[in-house]
Amino acid sequence: MPPNRSILHVDMDAFFASVEQRDHPEYQGRPVVVGADPKGGRGRGVVAACSYEARFFGIHSALPIGRAWRLCPQAVYLRPRGARYAEVSGEVFGILHRYSDLVEPLSIDEAFLDVTGSRRLLGSAEAIGRKIKAEIRAELGLVASVGVAPNKFVAKIASDIEKPDGLVAVAADRVQGFLDPLPITRLWGVGPKTAERLRSLGMQTIGDLSHRRREDLRASLGEAGEELWLLARGVDERPVVPEGEAKSLGAETTFAEDTSDPGRIRRTLLNLCERVGSRLRRSGRVAGGLTLKFRDEDFATSTRALPLSPPTDLTEDIYRAALALLEKTGWRGKRVRLLGVAAGRLQPRAEGAGAQLALFGDEGAGKRRRVAAVVDTLRERFGSEAVTRAALLEGEGEEEEKG
Ligand SMILES: [Mg+2]
After folding, report:
1. CA 34 to centroid of ligand 1, rounded, Å
2. DSSP per position, 70-87
3. Catalytic residue check, 110
4. Which of 7, 38, 327, 395 has the largest count of CB atoms under 10 Å?
5. Cis preceding-peptide flag for 192 (omega within 30 of 0)
6. Residue 89 Cα, ligand 1 centroid: separation in angstroms?
7. Ligand 1 centroid – CA 110 distance (Å)
8. pLDDT single digits (tens) 375-385
9. CB within 8 A of 46, min separation 6: which ones?
């Protein structure tokens, strides 16, 4: 790892609400709240995002929508348009990729960039941050905040500290002076409980930690204390990992309209599993775990996970596990807004994986692998919608017939 890295954290400001204000000029300058239907203050669910005008009234994301309504009934209340935000997100990432191949998405609207190798050609890291902000504004009509620092941890704080429209660059020799006055809750991994514990030990600011001895933190908080001490000293060596090398691989979809139709939900789930399986097979990896993400109409999100044993890249195995996870969410009767599937614990597929599977008494695996290869070929040739695995959807009870 180069000793003097330049890491950028780029974070879009009030992303969903800003996209709405840009797409609908009549909303500009008005408080805009994106989230659940407020139903005149009786609505359940929460605020997904809101404009800075709405924040002025005390509204923030994750606030119950009924409370938002009482704080500001005159705001523009909108249901999220997930597909639209994903589209604009793609445009934002297109701009980021002009400046580095090392772009690690954190969410739909934020990413880390390692621009260490770009500096000679494109200017200082701070200059690159400025250009990115200018291009996002000029080409997309949106505002981003950027933090520039020698590592991820400091870059992430730097992007946040002067939001909105911020650009904060922290040089390597200024990291400690930048961190020390900040509250301990800025440290990654410090939730309310750890914060309370640190305060009881007399530590309120990051400086209170960084000035202690490493052994003292280890003694009072164990290994976690040592990790916090390192962060407090501005030490964070984690690399920026581009998406293709990520440790997990996922697909998710937001329904155009919330649905409780079991057939539709299962078909969507199968499609997600097919996408994940296909990407696994293309990348030559198998997954040792699966996570399902389920969000209902009120924006309540639950995730369920289970191990995949033996690790697999086959759609059937992934789909079967995903169905088991779906049952654990208690989904029946709820209207679903978003479904996501992520394969984790990725590892290279061993040669002769079929033989390995046979050891587990799974004689059908070789055949299923051949089916997968055929499906992948068809998908490449005709697109994903052309191939539906009808067989997988058969015999799942009468609900399916109505779907
Ligand atoms: Mg953001």
Report:
1. 14
2. HH-TTSEEE---HHHHHH
3. yes
4. 7
5. no
6. 11
7. 6
8. 665 555 554 44
9. 35, 36, 61, 62, 63, 64, 65, 298, 299
